[in-house]
Design brief:
By secondary structure, the chain is an alpha/beta fold. Helices cover 41% and strands 21% of the residues. The protein contains eleven helices and 14 strands. The radius of gyration is 24 Å and the shape is globular. The mean pLDDT is 89. Residues 6-63 form the HTH lysR-type domain.
Length: 312
């Protein structure tokens, strides 16, 4: 496709190189040969009468013009996808659409499991790709690389639509066989014990309970850093360690594993889980249907007391 003499495929190449910072990685992403990608750069240089990229210390450096084109190029490609590529009509029962959703294992168990059951019944041809959290969530939304992100509302990304899903609070969990932890836990004992926490992506950010402790001037001893909430819960079994987790998830796991739930000895504010999606795809009929499906299931969860949560 051409517009004003510009092959729009060149914008796809430009966008990939600007994001990847490498001709090799951009070529792999677009499934093109390196010579084909180099040819695309040559045509971009000819059209814009600019070097577009230069080499400095063996690194690809965008020129000022290329940098100025980054946001407009992204916006153009998003609009093309939203308005020309997306089907104008959507029939869930006949669709083969794949939805990409960034979601924690907590929300996967509490929310997405019942969502997947409903989708399986109503739209068996639809597939869901659940993606782990990383440090590029903002960029993934901005670039339209994912359809949805499910996360606490305090982490909302600006300039993109959002919708409240359900509320939850925190509690402590411990192994039922622990002799150091009884039916309740004092603040002193809580701070003495070893703790299990979770980290998503290469950078570990303070959790809800860490922020609450810091506000009160306390610090805990972290002995295990798990890659997700499920591993975090399992890591207390057979030990005298304690973990502070979402109550809905804790109740579900306590029905199948030797865990006891305890009231947290430090005040941790409740939170709300939230759904976000790229602003460019707000009117996409498929995304509208999926938003409504997720919202309907979330409303049922929100009405269900945490103590009555079940899996299945």
């Amino acid at each position: 496709m051409r517009f004003e003499g510009l092959d729009l495929n060149l914008l796809v190449a430009l966008d990939a190189i600007l994001e990847e910072g490498s001709v090799v990685r951009a070529s792999q992403r677009l499934h093109l040969s390196q010579p084909a990608m180099s040819a695309a750069i040559g045509r971009l240089r000819q059209y814009f009468n600019d070097d577009i990229f230069t080499m400095s210390r063996r690194k690809l450096v965008p020129t000022p013009l290329a940098r100025s084109l980054e946001r407009p190029t992204r916006d153009i490609l998003l609009r093309v996808r939203a308005n020309l590529i997306s089907a104008p009509g959507f029939e869930p029962a006949n669709s083969q659409r794949r939805f990409r959703i960034v979601v924690s294992d907590y929300a996967s168990i509490v929310l997405m499991h019942p969502v997947m059951k409903r989708v399986y019944r109503e739209a068996p041809g639809i597939s869901l790709e659940l993606l782990p959290f990383n440090d590029r969530v903002d960029d993934q939304l901005e670039r339209g690389e994912v359809d949805f992100i499910i996360m606490p509302d305090v982490n909302a990304v600006d300039d993109h639509p959002r919708q409240h899903l359900f509320a939850d609070e925190f509690c402590c969990i411990a192994w039922t066989g622990s002799r150091k932890i009884g039916r309740s836990i004092s603040l002193g004992r809580y701070l003495q014990l070893g703790h299990v926490t979770a980290q998503f992506g290469p950078i570990r950010r303070p959790s809800f309970e860490e922020k609450a402790l810091a506000r009160s001037g306390y610090k805990r001893r972290i002995e295990v850093i798990a890659p997700n909430f499920t591993t975090m819960v399992a890591s207390v079994i057979g030990t005298d360690r304690v973990a502070t987790v979402h109550k809905r998830l804790a109740v579900i796991f306590a029905r199948s594993f030797p865990l006891k739930l305890l009231h947290a000895p430090v005040r941790i504010p409740a939170f709300r889980e939230m759904l976000q999606w790229p602003a460019s795809f707000h009117a996409d009929p498929a995304l509208v249907w999926m938003r409504e499906t997720i919202s309907d299931v979330a409303s049922e969860i929100d009405r269900t007391p945490a103590a009555r949560m079940r899996f299945g």
